[in-house]
Amino acid sequence: MSESMIQCRGVSKSYHKGSTVVTPLEALDLDVPKGEFLALMGPSGSGKTTLLNLLSGIDSPTSGSLVIAGIEIAKLSRRDLTKWRANHVGYIFQLYHLVPVLTAFENVELPLLLSPISKKERHARVETALALVGLSDRMHHTPSELSGGQEQRVAIARAVVADPPLLVADEPTGDLDRESAIRILDLIRQLARDHGKTIVMVTHDAKAAAAADRTLHLEKGQLLGNS
Ligand SMILES: Nc1ncnc2c1ncn2[C@@H]1O[C@H](COP(=O)(O)OP(=O)(O)O)[C@@H](O)[C@H]1O
Ligand SMILES: [Mg+2]
User: Fold this and answer.
1) Are 25 and 13 in contact (CB under 8 A)?
2) pTM value?
3) Atom 7 (ligand 1): residue with closest C-alpha?
4) Cβ of 18: how many Cβ atoms within 10 Å?
5) What is the pLDDT of residue 220?
6) Angle at the Cα of 75 (from 226 to 46), degrees rounded to 5?
7) Domains in the chain, ordered, with CATH?
8) Which of 13, 23, 40, 50 to mutate to test the pocket of ligand 1 (most atoms within 8 A of CB)?
């Protein structure tokens, strides 16, 4: 039996929008074993980003239980959640979210600036992460000097530099040409297969989902159709 990385039980999330209440996720159950690469599909507005935000501790559920790597994060305070997030989750965005005035090296270094490690150790980790994504030769370039595919590789290096067990990716190939997308998907798959990362990736692209071990569909607040 494989070890569990994510165990969601009866997770709901509601937002107040003016005088109405929107409930993108309702009594959701989800199990993801350690080391799985899971793709999440679903129409726009179906709650995919909301779910990633809950899994990554950016937001908390309205109700339900959310155990990640053995820790019940639904009950953590905002402050503890922030601490937890720093060494448990890496987030990869569709539009990379790199800091434009910083070099690739400095962008990847950011998540480590608050951790109690020496500068030498920090720099070594940044170099390892950039080597992993194949960008050692570009590390002193700023995002505007890089292609979209290279920017996303920097963002992946930033997501893994603190060595978190869980990575969440929100349409990571949505803004890339086919060739760059394939390279990013290969990289993400490699992170699961060779580095034991658990990955939850939202995508609109069936070809991207095909790179994953399993695909789930989010519809009307529920996860449907195992494949
Ligand atoms: N911070 C928020 N405040 C209010 N409503 C939100 C917020 N985030 C998401 N929603 C609403 O929740 C629903 C699901 O949104 P989202 O998770 O972004 O969907 P998806 O990523 O699948 O397109 C939408 O109706 C959206 O308007
Ligand atoms: Mg979204």
Assistant:
1) yes
2) 0.95
3) 15
4) 6
5) 85
6) 35
7) 4-224 (3.40.50.300)
8) 50
